[in-house]
Structures are given as C-alpha cells and as structure tokens.
Specification:
Layout: E1 3-10, H1 15-21, H2 31-34, H3 38-47, E2 51-56, E3 71-74, E4 78-79, E5 94-95, H4 98-110, E6 116-118, H5 125-134, E7 144-150, H6 160-175, E8 182-188, H7 205-215, H8 227-234, H9 241-250, E9 255-266, E10 269-278, H10 279-283
Parallel strand pairs: 1-8, 2-7, 2-8, 3-6
Antiparallel strand pairs: 1-10, 3-7, 4-5, 9-10
Bound molecules: 3,4-dihydroxybenzoic acid and fe (iii) ion.
Fe (iii) ion binds near residues 12, 126 and 240.
C-alpha cells in the first residue's frame, strides 16, 4: 500500500519564477513569501516522498477555450515544461509515475469520474514554480509526478463539492495501489486574485483565511460556496482554490496543519503556502519540529 504522507498547498504566481531566476529571495518584497517555504523544504527533505500527485490548472498550454476538459489526468512517462509567455526559464522534463497514473485513471473511471486521459501533457508555471520552490536549483527532482488538471478557467467550472469528491477518489486509488512509494499531494494556485477587468487586483483576506482555517480540519466547509460564489469571493483566478480543495480530498479524512504562510501581495495575488501532514504520518510520532510561520 502506498503511503500518502502529506500535502503542499501553494500559490503559483509566475513572477516567483523570475524572482528565483534573478535570485531575489532575500529582497524585502520577496522574503516574506520565500520564508514560508523553509519548513516545507525541511519537511520534504525529512519525509523524502517518491511521487507527487499534483492538482493544478492548465493556463493555455494544453487546453484552450475551444476544448476544455473538466478533469484531465496525465499518463506520460515524462512531461516537458513550457512557458506560455511569462519569460520564465524552461526546466528539464519531469519524470512521470506512469504506472501509477494508469492505476489512478482506471480507479477514477471505475468510480464514475469521466476524466480526460493525457498521454502527453506540457507542464506550465502551475507546477514548475511550486517544484522550484520545494526543490530549488532546476536539477533533477527526487519525485515522479502524476499531474491532475482541473478546469478553473472556462465556465461552467466544476463545483467545489465535485472537486473534493475527485480528490477523495484519487486518495482511494492511492490507498489501493500496491506499490510502497511515499506520496506527497500538491494543490497549486490561489489564493484570492483577479487579473483582469474592473476587479483586477481584487483580494479577499476574509475568504482566504476561511479557506486556510478549514483546509485541514473541515474541507467540506469549503464546498458550501458554489464555483460562481468563489469567483465572487476570491476573484476570477482565485477560483484556483478548487485545486486546493481536490488536493485536500486526496489526503483522506484527517490531516494536521504543520505550517502556513500568507503574504499580500505577490504580483496580483494573495500568496499562501500551507503544509499538511496526514493523520497516519503524524500518528507515527515522527512529527517534525518545523517552525510554524504565520504571515
Ligand atoms: C498571477 C497569478 C496566477 O495564478 C497566474 O496563473 C498568473 C499570474 C499573478 O498574480 O500575476
Ligand atoms: Fe494561475
């Protein structure tokens, strides 16, 4: 049985990639954000996961407004990184956990999730930035990846309830996997932000805090809003919180918050980072003394 050890939840603002490329991590603008990754990197180094199942949204590299799968799962042996126009460094390809991908796909379809299967998928900043924050240096990463893409872009969007159910179904698939891999779950995007239109620059601290306060203990509370309510509450890109909701579902019923960071703004975004550990991992009594960081 695979071991789901925990989850990393983070914003994926492209400007972070440029700050990394220019080594701005200690600049006053950037430091409060980058500092939130110190406990995350320490936890990852200690826990040493083998596989990352990553819930994120595509920003136009694979799917455009003409063809938009609600849920798509990668099933490739390798994923190339691409830049859809931010001028970001393009990193080496990401190795895929291909057999596990097919197992998840089989299990999701048996569970009546009508997903799109992608034997080729480009990975954009929604994955390359979180990975660069977790495993800096652009070198080979210690994890193989299963990317799960959620439509947070083209209406109609999936409901938060459906995203949580998808995540829980992925979690059940992982529980049933025969391998011995240690698995970390990622949810990327958010928190509140809106890039375009009259509300460009919109941020909602109250809703962001509501999400962070319920993520570990009561993710079902985050399904009380519809996807359109969330567009209203968090902005048209803040609805990327759907990726967090799905990722939380994959962690199982109970999860323990290890660290969080919240910093406004990074570019147009209320930037947040949270690290959760599954109850199972926490129970083993190996809880790390990572410094909780609340921005
Ligand atoms: C920004 C945030 C995003 O989530 C994204 O995908 C692109 C840009 C931003 O705040 O600049
Ligand atoms: Fe985004």
């Amino acid at each position: 049985m695979a071991d789901i050890i925990g989850g990393v939840f983070t914003s994926h603002v492209p400007a972070i990639g440029n700050a990394i490329a220019k080594q701005r991590q200690q600049d006053p603008y950037w430091k409060p954000f980058f500092d939130g990754f110190v406990p995350v990197r320490r936890w990852l180094a200690e826990r040493a996961p083998d596989v990352a199942v990553v819930f994120s949204n595509d920003h136009g590299l694979n799917f455009f407004l003409d063809k938009m799968p609600t849920f798509a799962v990668g099933a490739a042996a390798e994923y190339r990184n691409g830049d859809e126009g931010w001028g970001l460094p393009v990193y080496a390809p990401f190795p895929g956990a291909q057999a596990l991908s097919w197992h998840i796909i089989d299990s999701l379809v048996a569970d009546e999730f009508d997903i799109t299967t992608c034997q080729e998928m480009l990975l954009d900043h929604a994955i390359s930035i979180p990975f660069e924050l977790c495993w800096p240096g652009g070198g080979p990463r210690p994890v193989k990846i299963v990317p799960v893409s959620i439509n947070t872009v083209q209406h109609p969007l999936p409901s938060p309830k459906r995203c949580l159910a998808l995540g829980r179904a992925v979690g059940r698939a992982l529980q049933a996997w025969g391998g011995a891999e240690k698995i970390v779950i990622f949810g990327t995007g958010g928190l509140s932000h809106q890039l375009e239109g009259k509300r460009a620059g919109f941020i909602n601290k109250d809703y962001d805090r509501f999400c962070m306060d319920h993520l570990a203990s009561d993710p079902d509370a985050m399904t009380r809003h519809s996807a359109l309510d969330i567009v209203e509450l968090a902005g048209s890109q803040g609805v990327e919180i759907l990726n967090w909701i799905a990722a939380r579902g994959a962690l199982g019923e109970t999860a323990v918050e290890i660290s969080r960071n919240y910093h406004i703004p990074i570019s147009n975004t209320a930037a947040a980072t949270m690290l959760l550990e599954t109850a199972e991992t926490a129970r083993r009594g190996e809880r790390l003394e990572v410094e909780a960081f609340v921005g």
